[in-house]
Amino acid sequence: MSQDALSNLLQENRRFAPPAELAAAANITEDAYTRASEDRLAFWAEQAERLTWAKPWTEVLDWTNPPFAKWFVGGEINVAYNCVDRHVEAGRGDKVALHWEGEPGDTRAITYADLKREVCKAANALGELGVVKGDRVAIYMPMIPETAIAMLACARIGATHSVVFGGFSVDALRTRIEDADAKLVITADGGYRRGAPSALKPTVDQAVTKSVENVLVVRRTGQEVAWTDRDVWWHDLVDRQSEEHVPEAHDAEHPLFILYTSGTTGKPKGILHTTGGYLTQTAFTHHAVFDLKPETDVYWCTADVGWVTGHSYIVYGPLANGATSVMYEGTPDTPHRGRWWEIVQKYGVTILYTAPTAIRTFMKWGDDIPAQFDLSSLRVLGSVGEPINPEAYVWYRERIGGGRTPVVDTWWQTETGAIMISPLPGITHGKPGAAMRPLPGISADVVNDEAESVPNGSGGFLVLREPWPSMLRTVWGDDERFVQTYWSRWPGLYFAGDGAKKDDDGDLWLLGRVDDVMLVSGHNISTTEVESALVSHPKVAEAAVVGASDPVTGQAIAAFVIPRGDAGDVDVEELRGHVAQHLGPIAKPRQILLVPELPKTRSGKIVRRILQDIAEGRPTGDATTLADPAVMDHIKQALGL
Ligand code: WT7
User: Fold this and answer.
1) What does the pLDDT look like over 159-194, one tens digit per residue?
2) Global confidence as pTM
């Protein structure tokens, strides 16, 4: 994206006020913004007090060596103690921490007292395997309670975990084990996906490198596994451990975890998060953004623990707050397309946090499916991962939330560790598609090429002006890359890589990665806005837009559209006109291609690079990062390529 600011094309006038009842009892009121803007560090110090510290900090923030931040300097704290023990000590041991639902329908209810026993046993087991504070442990697991238990056990003893998404291949796992020099890998024989056991252990067997001394294996599916001397069954080792384990206090800046993000170029970056600031901001944001009432809410984040959303909003934030959560192992269409709504009904889920890609899938599957279930327990809905199209937002609010529930569109990244920009459900008048305002204590802005704040009504680059408690501390083993990637475009500003605009009220709209912005006849146009315009047409289920080189306009807009229902009755000319009517003639796609599916990563993000190859008439490039590489064949077949 260049000098010319992103065009502010989309007009969206729908507004949703917070429900009166929710507003009256909201966890956060407007004064939080005032207090945080008057004294940001005092505000964060106040939030850190939600946690139980073993030793108080002496300074809230040390920013003398930017961009290397130290938060809560001198403070000592144990993350696992805060997520587990203290709730038991406060008499809430019998409260359910996790309602776990396996894909085949088996269930486990794990109370905080159960969790304490299991985490202590696992911590003792790690000790027996010779894992000590500072060691790295790779975790390659299905969505089962032992995954959270393993993470907490690492946190308890001060071993730094690196969770690798269970859908990743041998190479991805090996690179991550190698980069972090992991001493132990925790895995399972397999997990259930799409109605069948899906093996994990064979991938680990091929990926282990010299640094790995042991592989600790949970038996989940009972499938056959190869076995070597370094392998240890979880049930053999963990079950016989003592249920007592004294949590050691760790420095506020002790490395809690590494999580790799792939990015578009180069090898994956090991994003490093530390202890005190990370837990402070995940706990605060989970309390604030979801208005969590731990006594009555049943909270469900549908992410996989292999992504940062799972770290911050399945494990650390909710448990630090003493929440009751649902954790689901499998896929949304197993054994039927109403599985999620069945789970919401069964557990009385009150807060649901999911991704736009899932919402659009449910839209495609049809309104009649959620309509068969009682979803009246829901009171707050959240969205994360990519911009939510206004139409998807409204569908989510109406069809899942019964028109009652606020939708919080939460912008953040693996690097930010916790939510940064979001409406607050008791305060904000929601606008479909907008992430609205930086949270109290966060200073996000939209700037132009010269790093000047853009006026309302304009677009540009999303930046963060001040450090925040859960920020990444570095790229594991590569401080230089940390500085180069995030802090070098403009001195003193963190550049997130996203485009955004401020509307006339100053509220923020995310416009996608700046690499995806199109330059059409000298205008920067956001792929997100064109996609949202397409999705607002009743015959469109999903859309992906790319800029394809064009001799006349520089780039021209090519759109790939999944029709709702039968493709036969979709009129491409009508869709082009629809976009022009919504966004103006400049945004009218040069071509619209009807396709049955879209290429997506395993975390649900559209891989535009491959679509650009098609639009520009090249053979399509590397499809190995796709969740389902066969999708490309289906697309090519539909296009007659
Ligand atoms: C990128 C970060 C944050 C956890 C999941 C993704 C995009 C994320 C939103 C949102 C618009 C969003 C951004 C961001 N993104 N949430 N609410 N609206 N875009 O973590 O894999 O590190 O990806 O996801 O482009 O930079 P991640």
Assistant:
1) 999 999 999 889 999 999 999 999 999 999 999 999
2) 0.93
Ligand 1 center from residue 415 Cα (angstroms): 10
ipTM for the complex shown: 0.98
What would the pLDDT profile of 329-375 be if each residue is shown by its tens digit?
999 999 999 999 999 999 999 999 999 999 999 999 999 999 999 99
Strand partners, 187: 140, 217
Encoded amino acid at 411, one letter: W
Ligand 1 centroid, distance to 511 Cα (angstroms): 11
Going 137 to 143 to 146 to 152, the CA torsion angle's sign is positive
Q: Which residues pair with 157 in a beta bridge?
A: none
Residues with CB under 6 A from ligand 1: 261, 307-309, 384-387, 409-414, 435, 496-498, 510, 513, 603
Smallest CA separation from ligand 1 atom 12, residue: 386
- Residue among 475, 448, 449, 473 nearest 459 (CA): 448
Judged by DSSP in three states, 39 sits in coil
DSSP for 3-38, written as a single string: SSPBP--------BPPPHHHHHT-S--THHHHHHHH
What separation in Å is there between the alpha carbon of 527 and the centre of ligand 1?
15
In 559-629, which ranges are continuous DSSP H helix?
A: 572-583, 608-615
Does the pLDDT at position 210 exceed 60?
yes
**Beta carbons within 10 angstroms of residue 415's beta carbon:** 23
Helix (H) or strand (E) holding 529: helix 527-535
User: How many degrees, rounded to 5, is the angle at CA 429 between CA 583 and CA 281?
Assistant: 105
Annotated binding site: 193-196, 309, 385-387, 409-414, 498, 513, 521, 535, 537, 540
Task: Give me ligand 1 centre to Cα 564, in Å.
Answer: 26
Give per-residue pLDDT as tens, 6-62. Answer: 666 677 889 999 999 999 999 999 999 999 999 999 999 999 999 999 999 999 999
